[in-house]
């Protein structure tokens, strides 16, 4: 009787456990999977912008457009599934609104790229036809020079001038195609118009009827409205307008994409919390069942107690404990962890989901490694032709020493400057890709002695002075990244200062777990509408011909600080007062560093 009672209670307890697991896990696991799919769809949409902009062929553009619309369709289905599973509705609405905003921008970008490709094709056709007409004019002029018998000096002078002007027209057409600003297009268009008027004036002055007629016909074809230089100017202006609009849409998508990815990550985190809660509920149910079975087992046979204990504790709790431990190891970055739980029940499905997360994490780590290798190889391989160009420019200067005019010397100096700038840009790009990936060496850093040395490297001691507003800390930290941050901020303050002399002030505040450092200068300041732009890659506030720089310094600073789990802000208002202040936080205790080892 007692054995039968124990068996009945054991079966009932198992059914309670199974029902609790079904209820919790049937809701949690699909929500976690759907949230992960939603996050991947968000990342795919954000990553689609550069692919659309670079689609210079309509077939490529159509493929990208089809892929984007498929992402949108899948996103809508996943969002509906999450809403049915009870996901956080407020957060989901924010993600949907931001997603649709990015999607709408991409749709506009697709239309603009299509229009750009059409205009680019027309531009190529018009440019080729216009250059052909200019070359035909040159052929007429050269034929005229050869067949005029014994022309007078005035005729030779006019025909020669027209020959040079026709060649200049071809040069202007090539320059127009390479121009990237409306002002440059307008300037080249005016030069083309002036050259055509000069050609027409010279042609009217030619007093040989046999030569005047073919010249007039060639000039008429060259000056035609469509195709012709005027049409080419309009097409190039349209292409530049489209590129500017695409840049604006791309910036909007990057800003919205960052917020969208953060919200999607929060949704994934909440779904993961739901899984953890479900697992905890299941463990609580198992523990309750253990107590019930143990109470009944004291009145039943030892065999019934043993069977119940073995099944409930070892088959369910052990698997839950193993899966929880393996998931925690995976969350800490250990992609080599082995997922041992298996089975055809809900716990087996959960283990399968963990294996998928593990595969994705390993693939991401491999992708990051390949990206760093690519950045290194690209930087190294691109420097080789740069060195060759620099050597060639030097040889040209040496071979033509004494024969170079003043303007040509300026052009050669400009070429050397561009080569040096490209080299610095490649170095900074490689450094940016490595931020947060390389293991930083930890040592004791005394900022009271290090900062003056760094300031001497970054700024001219005759023009700029460094002030330490308060005693700075001496602490154990990653030395190289923190020194690089201060070096970039000092260099930035010195390069953009507009006065003969300036001051830079460094101060610190203790905020508990972090230090807050401030680097202030008394320069011209940064307008408020440009303060977000300064932390983007390749962004400079003044022409690179005025100030040498790759535009990567502050981007590297921001990424380095954020890789340490900290933040940086800028404070400046040129309309009310001079100066700029950068504030950033830095950990007082570097992760994994043993302060006792460095204690004096």
Short description:
The protein is an alpha+beta fold and 600 residues long. It has 15 helices and seven strands. The radius of gyration is 35 Å and the shape is extended.
Structural summary, described in words:
With 600 residues, the chain is of the alpha+beta class. Among the domains are: 123-243, de novo design (two linked rop proteins) (Up-down Bundle); 366-434; 442-598, Histidine kinase-like ATPase, C-terminal domain (Heat Shock Protein 90), CATH 3.30.565.10. It is built from 15 helices and seven strands. The chain has helices at 2-46, 48-53, 58-84, 89-147, 153-178, 182-205, 209-222, 229-297, 302-331, 346-399, 406-434, 447-458, 479-495, 553-563, 595-598, and strands spanning 442-446, 464-468, 474-478, 502-510, 514-521, 568-571, 580-587. Strands 2-4-5-7-6 form a five-stranded mixed β-sheet. Strands 1-3 form a two-stranded antiparallel sheet. A hairpin with an 8-residue loop joins strand 6 (568-571) and strand 7. Helix 6 runs antiparallel to helix 7 (209-222). The relative contact order is 0.07.
């Amino acid at each position: 009787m007692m054995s039968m009672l124990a068996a009945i209670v054991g079966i009932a307890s198992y059914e309670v456990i199974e029902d609790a697991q079904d209820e919790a896990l049937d809701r949690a696991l699909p929500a976690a999977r759907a949230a992960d799919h939603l996050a991947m769809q968000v990342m795919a949409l954000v990553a689609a912008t550069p692919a659309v902009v670079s689609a210079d062929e309509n077939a490529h553009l159509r493929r990208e457009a089809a892929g984007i619309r498929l992402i949108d369709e899948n996103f809508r289905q996943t969002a509906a599934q999450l809403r049915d599973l009870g996901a956080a509705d407020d957060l989901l609405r924010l993600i949907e609104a931001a997603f649709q905003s990015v999607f709408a921008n991409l749709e506009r970008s697709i239309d603009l790229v299509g229009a750009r490709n059409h205009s680019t094709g027309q531009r190529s056709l018009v440019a080729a036809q216009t250059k052909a007409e200019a070359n035909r004019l040159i052929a007429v002029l050269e034929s005229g020079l050869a067949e005029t018998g014994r022309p007078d000096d005035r005729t030779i002078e006019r025909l020669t001038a027209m020959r040079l002007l026709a060649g200049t027209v071809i040069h202007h057409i090539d320059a127009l195609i390479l121009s990237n600003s409306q002002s440059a297009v307008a300037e080249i268009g005016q030069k083309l118009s002036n050259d055509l008027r000069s050609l027409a004036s010279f042609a009217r002055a030619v007093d040989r009827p046999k030569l005047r007629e073919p010249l007039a016909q060639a000039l008429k074809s060259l000056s035609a409205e469509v195709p012709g230089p005027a049409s080419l100017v309009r097409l190039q202006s349209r292409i530049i307008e489209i590129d500017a609009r695409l840049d604006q849409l791309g910036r909007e998508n990057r800003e919205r994409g960052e917020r969208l990815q953060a919200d999607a990550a929060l949704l994934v985190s909440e779904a993961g919390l739901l899984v953890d809660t479900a697992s905890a509920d299941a463990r609580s149910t198992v523990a309750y069942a253990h107590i019930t079975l143990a109470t009944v087992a004291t009145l039943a046979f030892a065999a019934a107690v043993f069977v119940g204990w073995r099944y409930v504790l070892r088959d369910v709790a052990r698997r839950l404990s193993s899966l929880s431990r393996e998931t925690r190891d995976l969350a800490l970055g250990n992609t080599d962890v082995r997922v041992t739980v298996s089975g055809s029940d809900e716990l087996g499905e959960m283990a399968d989901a963990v294996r998928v997360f593990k595969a994705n994490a390993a693939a991401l780590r491999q992708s990051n490694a390949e990206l760093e290798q690519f950045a290194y190889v690209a930087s190294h391989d691109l420097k080789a032709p740069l060195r060759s160009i620099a050597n060639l420019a030097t040889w040209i200067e040496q071979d033509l020493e004494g024969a170079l005019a003043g303007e040509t010397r300026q052009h050669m100096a400009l070429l050397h400057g561009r080569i040096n700038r490209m080299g610095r840009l490649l170095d900074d790009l490689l450094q940016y890709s490595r931020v947060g990936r390389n293991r930083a060496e930890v040592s004791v850093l005394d900022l009271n002695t290090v900062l003056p040395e760094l300031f001497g490297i970054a700024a001219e001691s005759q023009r700029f002075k460094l002030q330490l507003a308060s005693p700075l800390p001496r602490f154990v930290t990653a030395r190289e990244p923190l020194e690089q941050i201060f070096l970039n901020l000092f260099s930035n303050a010195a390069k953009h200062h507009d006065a003969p002399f300036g001051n830079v002030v460094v101060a610190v505040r203790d905020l508990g777990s972090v230090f807050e450092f401030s680097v202030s200068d008394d320069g011209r300041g940064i307008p408020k509408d440009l303060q977000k732009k300064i932390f983007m890659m390749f962004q400079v506030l003044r022409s690179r011909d005025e100030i040498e720089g790759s535009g990567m310094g502050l981007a590297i600073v921001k990424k380095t600080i954020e890789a340490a789990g900290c933040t940086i802000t800028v404070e400046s208002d040129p309309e009310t007062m001079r100066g700029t202040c950068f504030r950033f936080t830095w950990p007082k205790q570097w992760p994994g560093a043993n302060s006792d080892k460095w204690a004096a």
